[in-house]
Design brief:
heterodimer, A: 89 residues, SH3 type barrels, B: 374 residues, alpha/beta, Rossmann fold, 3 domains, 5-stranded parallel β-sheet, 4-stranded parallel β-sheet, 15 helices, 38% helix, globular, disordered N terminus
């Protein structure tokens, strides 16, 4: 639950929704908490419980992926990401 | 230095470790508290204690939201779900946490409609998909998670989704740190500040810790090198007699925090006068309840809540471990009655709980070395 998962923005939708690529799958996340740093397609964000919390650089995203791997939390992060949208989107 | 091989920058790690050795005064014992459960997990996983001199002690803090939740809250929420026609939705971390009459998972086995969700917005989606039922989201977490719950409630209100309810257990980190500093049996020299909570609240809310309490605090990232650098920064301050707020995790944490997230929290939540923390008792203004403007979505206002209070099993010493007075293995039940497979306290359930982290990374290893099955 306290994991922050790096995701890459694929497409922006109305009402603060965005299609992102996260842990190898495409899911919708909410970007309503990024009002002061509006992301664009191609940007990386840190996602927490289905909401983008902050914009990060690609290098930071790779760092975070490595941290999750080192912590042995990669499977849990992938499971979380796969199940966003109740697995039906 | 067992995990050093897999570290990205072994030379930086070695340097930081040597700098810590150099800075640590051998005539002094340092007690540094890592506030966040994510740091606790990283410290055990990476074996960072082995890179520190014996007089630099890491004390595990209260920053694991599952761990600090009193058992009665789970029973209260389950009693709402038992009132019928309610789907109980919660993060997976909550499922195995024991209430007085069993965990949510055990209630599910007895027929209660309990679903795992990975986002509060998915609990809202469940409500849309099940209009004939109430969907109650068991909200939990520090300031990292509260904004997501807030935005979800704002969405429910905007879209007029009336069968969605939130049972709020959101807590705030600052009053917990204050309670630790006020506790007579605690002596903490400095704090490793939480990483992801600080992306929301920023660094300013920690200033009183430095100014009024004279304790350094360094907000830190989660890589081994981050935690070691944070320790170097803390020891440098202690060496000079300084007490400042510093930010080691600038690549993710802005000094001012995330204003949109803070605004969402302020729109939906207000401070409870007091809230009970497991093992730490009642702490003033330490948790968030839902504002009257959102009362229709507040499970505690829509349903009868019994207000269950359950004392922890007598022998379990979760409170002492949570406050850092005892190490996990010093609890009488550790590794005996209480294991990750059969947890008695929440500290043994969450991967961010210090007991589970200690058990998985230290205790199993020691047991394997001793040739005993773990």
């Amino acid at each position: 639950m306290c994991l922050a998962i790096p995701a890459k923005i694929v497409e922006l939708y109305p009402e603060d929704q965005a299609l992102v690529e996260v842990a190898g799958v495409r899911r919708h996340v909410n970007i309503g908490l990024l009002q002061e740093e509006q992301p664009a397609a191609g940007d990386w964000v840190l996602v927490h419980v289905g909401f983008a919390m902050s914009k990060i650089s690609e290098e930071q995203a790779q760092d975070q992926i490595r941290v999750l791997k080192m912590l042995g939390e990669q499977d849990a992060a992938e499971e979380e990401a796969r199940n966003y949208g109740l697995n039906d989107s | 230095m067992k995990f050093v091989d897999e570290f990205r920058e072994p030379e930086v790690i070695a340097k930081a470790s040597a700098e810590i050795q150099r800075l640590a005064d051998p005539n002094r014992h340092y007690r540094l508290m890592e506030v966040c459960g994510g740091h606790t997990h990283a410290i055990y996983r990476f074996g960072l204690k082995d890179l520190l001199p014996p007089n630099v002690e890491l004390v595990h803090g209260p920053g694991c939201p599952v761990c600090v939740l009193p058992m009665g809250r789970i029973d209260d929420a389950l009693s709402i779900a038992a009132q019928g026609n309610v789907i109980f939705a919660a993060f997976g971390d909550m499922m195995r946490v024991p209430g007085a009459n069993g965990s949510p998972l055990q209630h599910k086995a007895r027929g209660m409609d309990i679903r795992i969700v990975y986002s509060p917005s998915d609990a809202l989606r469940l409500a849309v998909q099940n209009p004939e039922k109430h969907v109650m989201f068991f909200a939990i977490g520090f300031e990292t998670t509260a904004p997501s719950t807030a935005l979800t409630l704002m969405r429910a209100k905007k879209d007029g989704i009336k069968n969605f309810l939130v049972f709020s257990n959101h807590v705030t980190i600052i009053p917990a740190i204050r309670a630790i500093l006020d506790s007579p049996d605690m002596r903490i020299d400095a704090f490793i500040g939480p990483g992801h909570v600080s992306t929301v609240i920023g660094c300013r809310p920690y200033e009183w810790i430095a100014k009024n309490e004279g304790r350094p605090i360094v907000v830190s990232g989660f890589e081994p090198v981050d935690v070691l650098q944070a320790i170097v920064m803390l020891l440098r301050q202690l060496d000079k007699g300084d007490a400042k707020v510093e930010n080691q995790y600038t690549r993710v944490v802005p000094w001012e925090g995330n204003r949109a997230a803070l605004k969402a929290i302020g729109e939906v939540f207000e401070l409870r006068p007091y809230f009970e923390w497991r093992g730490m008792g009642f702490i003033s203004q330490s948790a968030l309840s839902i504002r009257p403007a959102y009362a229709e979505w507040d499970a505690e206002k829509r349903f009868q809540v019994p207000g269950v209070r359950v004392t922890d099993p007598k022998a379990a010493q979760c409170g002492e471990v949570l406050k850092g007075v005892l190490k996990p293995a010093q609890c009488k039940l550790f590794g005996k009655e209480c294991t990750p497979e059969h947890p008695i306290g929440a500290l043994m359930v969450s991967s961010e709980g210090s007991c589970a982290a200690y058990y998985n990374f230290e205790y199993r290893k020691a047991a394997a070395l001793a040739g005993t099955p773990s």
